[in-house]
């Protein structure tokens, strides 16, 4: 099947816009490989320090005949998704020895959980934990003692941060290694219902806690299709996993064999062999467009409208929201996974999972089939599901959809487009995800209720002040203001208002997360309210209580319906003072240097463009 013409045109646009930056990046990779401070070049004392921590592998390391694989791990046992990594490094060392290679833990990266910090001060560190992870990954790989790497990470900021750091060492072959989702617990719809009952005062805190624990009940990734599982989907369509490793449950024999295969695979990709596949060449413009197509076709997390531009930029590639908007109108929605449907990712996997998605999108011409994959020799391999033939890994065709309420073909999609829209108007540019929003809610026109903190919104809701048609505006939530926290705690009360029959929408320069759902939300408003180093702040700071706001996902507009002369004469609202405590003051530099959401809302990349 020839490539879809819009996918082709967007790819050409990305290639042309990235021409200079990508050329400079590839020149960097060539220089880094040719001048690499690798083991043969290191002094004896340097090598002795690197080998001192291991006795069993020291002779093989000293001989230097096999690859030494660096493991960058996000293990901690506070995060269910990353607790599964506890034994991985020791197992990987054994599997590396099977093929004459060695492996060492190069370093750890932080892995915080937005689910724990939602609505509290720690959430203001969340987005910049991605930059911290990128820096930590670079430090881990900076020793020059590795010929390849395995990146152990799953959740929201961890995978983008690992890639941002790893791509600066893009001459090395690397794979990402997932851990899999936890088995299904309390259904997501039942969990959401208890949350809304609690927000309405109809459920006790004990009932709410019991409900949440029944949903998040063991090790593995959370089972809704939020940012963590969207990360895993994107690594599949970019060819950076062993094919279809993403959604196999932890603790299974199949999961173990997929991880073993990742160790063996990365050892095949070194520059001493004939199959050299450095990660910086794998992550090219076509792979980035594949990630965008996968995001849209599966109804993935809005957070990737920040993360995908940042990942691309680390590889010298420029993709913007206009590209996503154009692709969204050409890419059919073929998956419904909570919050865009009733099923969780285990149901998605059982229905055919990523093998079905990739097979169908390749057949319909929506994915680039000629990308250079790290996880297998050909991207076509990703159109098959892994299984065990005895103790041996094998792959099989996924067959037809096992449940057409979860997975459909592009010829019979849930919606003809991907459900992401870019809104623009006198308030600025914003994103909206409408794949879970009823179509009669795609346009909301109502008076504004303006806040500078989500706690203020919750207080107004509890006081009954929002029981009306309303556009809730929450500003000073951008990266420069407070680190751009997710405003996920607003979902239940806004859902309650909508259930009462009111016309409700959210407008914010903050994030709403991969769990955003049925309430229309214009998010990532740019420019954000707080002025940057250029002295300019966004027009969202001009909105006043009672202004008529129009959020229009049909025509792609975001407007304050205010007389233009009055609008131009307004003075921006004063920003609240910068918060301190919970370590937030340590991230002042990140906030001050952060660029706009559309470029990735990153501080470290602002100074890393080649």
UniProtKB/TrEMBL annotation:
GO molecular function, one term: metal ion binding
Pfam families noted in UniProt: ILV_EDD_C, ILVD_EDD_N
EC class: lyase
SUPFAM superfamilies: IlvD/EDD N-terminal domain-like, LeuD/IlvD-like
InterPro entries per UniProt: 6-phosphgluc_deHydtase, Dihydro-acid_dehy_C, DiOHA_6PGluconate_deHydtase_CS, ILV_EDD_C, ILV_EDD_N, IlvD/EDD_N
Cofactor detail note: Binds 1 [4Fe-4S] cluster.
Ranges of residues in domain Dihydroxy-acid/6-phosphogluconate dehydratase C-terminal: 406-601
Essential cofactor(s): [4Fe-4S] cluster
Binding site for [4Fe-4S] cluster: 155, 222
Entry EC no(s): 4.2.1.12
Catalysed transformations (reactions): 6-phospho-D-gluconate = 2-dehydro-3-deoxy-6-phospho-D-gluconate + H2O
Span of domain Dihydroxy-acid/6-phosphogluconate dehydratase N-terminal: 68-380
The keyword Zinc appears for this protein: no
Example GO BP: Entner-Doudoroff pathway through 6-phosphogluconate
Any one annotated GO CC term: cytosol
Pathway as given in its UniProt record: Carbohydrate metabolism; Entner-Doudoroff pathway
PROSITE patterns noted in UniProt: ILVD_EDD_1, ILVD_EDD_2
Start and end residues of each stretch annotated as Disordered: 390-410
NCBIfam families: edd (TIGR01196)
Family assignment from sequence similarity: Belongs to the IlvD/Edd family.
General function of this protein: Catalyzes the dehydration of 6-phospho-D-gluconate to 2-dehydro-3-deoxy-6-phospho-D-gluconate.
Protein's name according to its UniProt entry: Phosphogluconate dehydratase
Organism expressing this protein natively: Sphingomonas dokdonensis
